[in-house]
Amino acid sequence: MFCPYCGAQNEDAANTCKECQKPLPKPEEERKEKEKPVYNPPPVRPFQPGSPGSEYVFAAPVNYSSGYVYQPASTVGVAQSDSIALARLGAYIIDSIITGVISLVVVVIPLVFWVTSFVSRYYSDLEATCNTSRDTVACDNLLENIMVEKGELWGFLGVVGGFGLLATLLCLAYSVYFTARGATPGKKVFGIKVVRQDGSTPGFGAALLRQTVGYFISSTVFMLGFLWAVFDKYGQGWHDKLAKTYVVKA
Fold this sequence. Notes:
Pra-immunoreactive; about 55% helix; RDD family protein; 2 domains; mainly alpha; rod-shaped; single chain
């Protein structure tokens, strides 16, 4: 038997080591010690995330709104750039030329026909009385008689007023129709359009409000309502604010 302390060899029946004098284990106890089963505990499994005892926990679910709220595009509701301000001015000039041509055709042409008819009917009287500048009183009396007593003044006012109103309505229809669809021809040329906050086209109601009451308000106080769009945070004139519209790049 070998001493478990110093390693010296001893007799099997010895109780103490002859070298270190320490007690030697009995053969029966040594046998039992060798035969004693070795216990190996199973490996500890880490806690799963979210389970009790884990250092990782799942966050509580967040209640999100079920409704989808449209966020305006980056071009909507942002500061007005100089390029868009100049584009709006250019679009206004082009649209003014178009509406001017409409007014010219609707008002001036009927007025020319009326003047031609007036002269042909009273040419002889006018030629005899107003051909010279000697008797201006007689000429004035003749014109007064023709215009007032013969009712030609009402015919003249009817042509100017009636066709002028028609021209105004046509120009308004032009601006409302195209604005309701997003852009007038002038705005299309310069690559801009009119939209709502959600990016959709204004529609007839907003376009009518913008082009009538809105334009009237913006034109007061030296056109300040139109100039307001240059300095406004969202690039809106007074007419845009009233109709809740924006002018953005197309």
